C-alpha cells in the first residue's frame, strides 16, 4: 500500500478490508468427530496430527471412540493429540461443529445442538425433503463438501478425492486383470516384446488426468474421450505428451472399446444425472475378460450396463465383461484420503476459531459461503429447493438482514 493510502487508513479515512474481529471472551470452538456408521465408509475428516494442532490453538475436539480405527488411527492416537474420547454419540453430536464424511441421519440431527454447524458430504442422490426439514427445525447451518470452494474458485474436496480415485482405479484394474482374480491374465502396462495394455478413459477431468498418469507410468497405451475440446487440450498439456484424444462419437468410441482391456468411466455430471455414452451393444463387442470401472456411478454413470456395487461385493459380469462400480473409491485408501481431507479442513477450522464461529466465517469468506445449503432455519440452495419442492431464501439476503 502506498505511504499516502497507509496514512489515510491509519487515521480511519479509508476502511481496511479485514474480517470481523473475534469477540472477546467468546468460548472456545467445540468440534465433534462422530464415528461413521456405514460399513462402506472408512475415512475420517481429521487426523490425530491435525487434532493436535487444533488443540494447541484452544479448540476442543471430541472424538467418538473408534472413529478413526478404519483409517488405522487409534483412540490413543487422538487422546495423545489432545482430543477427548467419548463413548456417547449424543455427546459428540452436541458440539458446535460436527465434521463427518457421510451426512447424519434424521435421528442424529435431532441430537445436535440448536444452531450448530454440520460439515459433511451432502450425497444428493440419497437425500429427500425430510432431511432438509430436520436441519431447518434445529436451525442447523449445513455445509456440503461437494459445494465448498477455495479462494481461487476450485472445489478442493472434490478435486482431492478425484485425484485419489484416479490414481486408485488403475490399481483396481490391475487386480482384476490378473489371473488370480480370473481376469485376462494381463499385466497392466507392458513388457519387452509384448504389446501394451489398452486403456480407454471416458472423460478428461481430474479423475482422468490421474488415471492417465498412472497408466502411462505403468506403460499402458491410453485413449481419452471427452466432448469438451478444451478439456482434451488441457489433459494433453498436463500429461506433457502426445496421447490419443477424441470427441465422443459412436464410431470412434466403439472401435476403441472393441480393442480395450480397461475402460474407465470418468465423466462428471454437469446438470443432474450423467448421460449414457457406452451402450450395452458396445459392451457386448468388447474383448471377454476386460474390465469396466465407472467412477461416476453415484451420479448415474456413463455406461448402460453399470449399476452401483459395494466394497464388500464390488464386481459383477455382463457379457463376460467385469464391471467395478463402487461409488466411494477413495475409501479403499482411507488413511491417504483422511490425510487429504484433514489438510483441507484443518485450516478452515482454525480460521473459524479465529473469527469466532461459523456465522463470521460465512460473512467473511465467499469461498466458504458457497458450501452452505441451510442456514438458521432456511434452505439457501436453489437447486435443492427445486429438487425437493421446497422454498428457499438467498443466503446473501439473510446475511444482509442479520448484519
From TrEMBL:
InterPro entries in UniProt: Ala_DH (IPR008141), AlaDH/PNT_N (IPR007886), AlaDH/PNT_NAD(H)-bd (IPR007698), NAD(P)-bd_dom_sf (IPR036291)
Domain Alanine dehydrogenase/pyridine nucleotide transhydrogenase N-terminal, residue spans: 32-165
Protein EC: 1.4.1.1
Alphabetically ordered keywords of this record: Oxidoreductase
UniProt domain Alanine dehydrogenase/pyridine nucleotide transhydrogenase NAD(H)-binding: residue ranges: 177-325
Pfam families: AlaDh_PNT_C, AlaDh_PNT_N
Family according to the record: Belongs to the AlaDH/PNT family.
Name the UniProt record assigns to this protein: alanine dehydrogenase
Species: Algoriphagus aestuariicola
Amino acid at each position: 500500500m502506498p505511504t499516502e493510502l497507509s496514512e489515510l487508513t491509519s487515521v480511519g479515512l479509508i476502511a481496511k478490508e479485514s474480517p470481523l474481529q473475534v469477540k472477546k471472551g467468546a468460548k472456545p470452538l467445540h468440534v465433534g468427530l462422530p464415528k461413521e456408521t456405514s460399513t462402506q465408509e472408512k475415512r475420517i475428516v481429521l487426523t490425530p496430527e491435525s487434532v493436535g494442532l487444533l488443540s494447541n490453538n484452544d479448540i476442543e475436539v471430541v472424538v467418538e471412540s473408534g472413529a478413526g480405527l478404519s483409517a488405522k488411527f487409534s483412540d490413543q492416537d487422538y487422546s495423545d493429540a489432545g482430543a477427548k474420547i467419548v463413548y456417547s454419540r449424543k455427546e459428540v453430536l452436541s458440539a458446535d461443529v460436527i465434521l463427518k464424511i457421510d451426512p447424519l441421519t434424521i435421528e442424529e440431527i435431532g441430537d445436535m445442538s440448536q444452531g450448530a454447524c454440520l460439515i459433511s458430504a451432502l450425497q444428493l442422490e440419497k437425500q429427500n425433503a425430510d432431511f432438509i426439514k430436520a436441519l431447518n427445525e434445529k436451525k442447523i447451518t449445513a455445509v456440503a463438501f461437494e459445494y465448498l470452494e477455495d479462494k481461487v474458485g476450485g472445489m478442493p474436496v472434490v478435486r482431492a478425492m478425484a485425484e485419489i480415485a484416479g490414481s486408485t482405479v488403475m490399481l483396481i484394474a490391475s487386480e482384476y486383470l490378473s489371473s488370480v482374480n480370473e481376469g485376462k491374465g494381463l499385466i497392466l502396462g507392458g513388457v519387452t516384446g509384448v504389446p501394451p495394455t489398452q486403456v480407454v478413459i471416458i472423460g478428461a477431468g481430474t479423475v482422468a488426468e490421474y488415471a492417465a498418469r498412472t497408466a502411462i507410468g505403468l506403460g499402458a497405451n491410453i485413449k481419452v474421450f471427452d466432448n469438451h475440446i478444451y478439456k482434451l487440450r488441457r489433459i494433453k498439456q498436463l500429461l506433457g505428451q502426445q496421447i490419443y484424444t477424441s470427441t465422443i462419437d459412436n464410431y470412434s468410441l466403439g472401435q476403441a472399446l472393441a480393442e480395450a482391456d480397461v475402460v474407465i468411466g470418468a465423466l462428471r455430471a454437469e446438470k443432474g444425472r450423467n448421460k449414457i455414452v457406452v451402450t450395452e451393444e458396445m459392451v457386448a463387442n468388447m474383448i471377454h475378460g476386460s474390465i469396466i470401472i465407472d467412477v461416476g456411478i453415484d451420479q448415474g454413470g456413463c455406461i448402460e450396463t453399470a449399476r452401483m456395487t459395494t466394497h464388500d461385493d464390488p464386481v459383477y459380469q455382463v457379457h463376460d465383461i467385469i464391471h467395478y462400480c463402487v461409488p466411494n473409491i477413495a475409501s479403499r485408501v482411507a488413511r491417504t484420503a483422511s490425510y487429504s481431507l484433514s489438510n483441507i479442513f484443518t485450516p478452515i477450522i482454525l480460521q473459524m476459531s479465529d473469527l469466532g464461529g461459523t456465522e463470521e466465517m460465512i460473512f467473511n469468506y465467499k469461498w466458504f459461503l458457497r458450501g452452505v445449503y441451510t442456514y438458521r432455519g432456511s434452505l439457501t440452495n436453489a437447486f435443492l429447493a427445486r429438487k425437493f419442492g421446497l422454498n428457499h431464501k438467498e443466503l446473501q439476503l439473510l446475511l444482509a438482514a442479520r448484519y
